[in-house]
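Build the 3D complex.
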Amino acid sequence: GAGVSQTPSNKVTEKGKYVELRCDPISGHTALYWYRQSLGQGPEFLIYFQGTGAADDSGLPNDRFFAVRPEGSVSTLKIQRTERGDSAVYLCASSLNTGSSYEQYFGPGTRLTVT
Amino acid sequence: GDSVTQMEGPVTLSEEAFLTINCTYTATGYPSLFWYVQYPGEGLQLLLKATKADDKGSNKGFEATYRKETTSFHLEKGSVQVSDSAVYFCALTGSARQLTFGSGTQLTVLP
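Done.
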């Protein structure tokens, strides 16, 4: 079946602009995660959704970052007033979160470059 | 909070050499432990996992044993291949559902 998809694959934007990054999880997966991976580092947690609600947003770095998942499927990560330090690969993952199935499946990521 | 410390890279080996990538962790309670792999140009893939002490995860010739007494989950493979060249990440889930990753180890296997 289809895996996790993310669009766009690459995004170049100017400092101060607004961007939206989209994640389409595996069908039927109730949990959705956003991570950010800077060059040469491991992914860092941003936010976790269980269904439509944000179960844990403790990883969002500041109030310029916001994410939604209005129908419990597709999620959008929104970044306002982008800064050069926001440049990274943004990863999305989804999981079933039932019984013993908590394995997270990752999408290919969106590479964001802020100039 | 939870943390993962991973062997610094890069690591360069000849084909058929023995591989060890060290990983230690700090977490409260009883975390689940994972190794993820990122092949060139591809997304993160789960390589293996272990959910309780003394469990051994294995896949594609790779193995790792959950050692609670030493808080370690070292990755091993007896004979590496060129196709194993990738970045390897150790990770855990603790009381929270999200993954905490190490910084990654770049492995290059030469023919």
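Chain B has no helices and twelve strands.
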